[in-house]
Specification:
Structural class: mainly beta
Helix content: under 10%
Domain Bacteriophage phiJL001 Gp84 C-terminal: 182-265
Pfam families: Phage_BR0599, Phage_phiJL001_Gp84_N
InterPro entries: Phage_phiJL001_Gp84 (IPR011928), Phage_phiJL001_Gp84_C (IPR018964)
Shape: globular
Number of domains: 2
Strand content: 35-45%
Number of helices: 4
Radius of gyration: 24 Å
Protein name: DUF2163 domain-containing protein
Number of strands: 16
Length: 277
């Protein structure tokens, strides 16, 4: 390759199999079964690559467009963790190329019709915590392979139509099934219809009122506000306490916490919490 004929090309593959190709060349390139389109939706900054196991550091940025990377898809998390590969390629002979980056998309930020995504190298998983954490509360995520609680049926999830949207983060319902107050706190909500379909959020507060009225407050407003009448699915939450695991979910056999571990005060000042031995 010569310096005057080098272009960069990058591929992004979502978890659902959708593949997009981009290049900073002024014409499309095709190799490895992928067509790389010029100036189409995304560009990448210069890579900062280190030796050893250090995580490569770079960013990708671009415009949110209807035919490439849409705002709705970004907000719905469809690009989270997408596979990324980048090549330097001789655009006069695409067989002459070298792979300069392989990894995934990390945190995605959006502003004014554009996005910026962190690129994470293949060594990024090595930064994840390993091992067991000794804590009074459960370390499992509700419904995962450690928790083993299957969240199906009307006990742990329901669907309802939105009757009111306040401040972007509070959803009101007028014909809600009978659940106790706070049943859905720390749970999650998924929009099933309308322009916000596919978006999800974590639930902060769940307030029940007489007559089947209910208000659910989200920790953060949905990126695209749902409309009145849109359907949502709401899943119960867990505060990870042993009592909740036993009484609410009947799942204490799979509890992944240590409810009888001594408190920090007991360790630091045993005379205030009881005797040792």
């Amino acid at each position: 390759m010569t310096a005057t004929t080098i272009a960069r090309a990058w591929m992004v593959r979502r978890a659902d199999g959708m593949v997009l190709g981009f290049t900073d060349h002024d014409a499309s390139l095709t190799f490895e079964g992928i067509r790389f389109l010029p100036d189409h939706g995304m560009s990448a900054r210069a890579l900062v690559q280190a030796t050893g196991l250090s995580v490569d550091n770079s960013e990708a940025e671009g415009a949110l467009s209807d035919d490439a990377i849409t705002e709705k898809d970004v907000l719905a998390g469809r690009w989270d963790g997408a596979e990324v590969r980048m090549w330097e390629v001789d655009w006069t002979r695409v067989a002459s190329r070298r792979l300069i980056f392989a990894g995934s998309l990390g945190e995605i930020a959006r502003s004014r019709g554009a996005f910026r995504a962190e690129l994470r190298g293949l060594s990024e998983p090595l930064n994840a915590a390993r091992g067991l954490v000794f804590h009074p509360r459960c370390s499992a995520r509700l419904g995962d392979s450690n928790c083993k609680r299957i969240l199906t049926g009307a006990t742990f999830m329901t669907e309802a139509s939105i009757a009111k949207v306040s401040d972007g983060s509070v959803l009101g319902f007028t014909a809600f099934p009978a659940y106790g107050p706070g049943w859905f706190e720390r749970g999650n909500i998924l929009v099933l219809s309308g322009k916000a379909e596919g978006l999800h959020a974590s639930i902060k507060d769940d307030v029940a009122s007489p007559g089947g009225r209910r208000e659910i407050a989200l920790w953060q407003a949905l990126g695209i506000l749902p409309d009145i009448g849109d359907r949502v699915r709401i899943v119960a939450g867990c505060d990870k306490r042993a009592e909740t695991c036993r009484k609410k979910f009947d799942n204490f056999l799979n509890f992944r916490g240590f409810p009888h571990i001594p408190s920090e005060d007991w360790i630091m000042a045993p005379q205030t919490g009881g005797r040792r031995g």
